[in-house]
Amino acid sequence: MTDKGLSMLEEAFSSDLCYLMAMSHIVLANNQVTSRFIEKNYDMPVNAWSTLYAVSYFPGILARDVQILFPRPQNSISRAIKLLEDRCLIKREVDNNDTRAKQLFPTAEGNALLLEIENKVVRRQEEVFGALTDLERQTFLSLCRKIIDSGALNSSSALDVF
């Protein structure tokens, strides 16, 4: 990174918005790299990969519940589901308890593709978190969970939304 870039980041991370700026920088920079990789190699948006992840790890999940893991607009998740279905990577089945609900299940092809992608993304995770010790990684995860568990991410009285 250039001296100018480092200086800009230092100023942003020293501002009144330092925590949100740092979190945004990490998330957006990683998404940029990951999105390019998924789109180039698998011809799908990154939200399709994350939806496949949710369906594979939580077989029977409902479309609306994908947002629990990956807070994205419902229409983005619906498009991802359609793409994954069209490629025979997931299938929908009627919920026995609620015939209006459609549960999502991975196909064998979907599980195989997810495994292939995961093997590469695990290496990406090591790149990103390689600067941290094991203890720092655990602390980072613990702090992330604390923020997530607070419920403050999905609504805001300060911004008067939701």
Protein topology:
Layout: H1 3-12, H2 18-42, H3 46-57, E1 61-62, H4 66-69, H5 74-86, E2 90-95, E3 98-106, H6 108-129, H7 134-150
Antiparallel strand pairs: 1-3, 2-3
CA radius of gyration is 18 Å
**Would you identify the CATH H-level superfamily of one domain?**
Winged helix-like DNA-binding domain superfamily/Winged helix DNA-binding domain
- Average pLDDT works out at 92
Shape: globular
- Supply the helix-strand structural class: mainly alpha
CATH topology of one domain: Arc Repressor Mutant, subunit A
Tally of helical runs: 7
The biggest beta sheet reads: 3 strands, antiparallel
Unreliable spans are none
The CATH architecture of one domain: Orthogonal Bundle
**Distance between the amino and carboxyl termini:** 38 Å
Secondary-structure element pattern, one letter each: HHHEHHEEHH
In percent, how helical is the residue content?
A: 55-70%
The strands making up the biggest β-sheet line up spatially as 1-3-2
Number of β-strand runs: 3
The percentage of residues in β strands lies in 5-15%
By CATH reckoning, the class of one domain would read Mainly Alpha
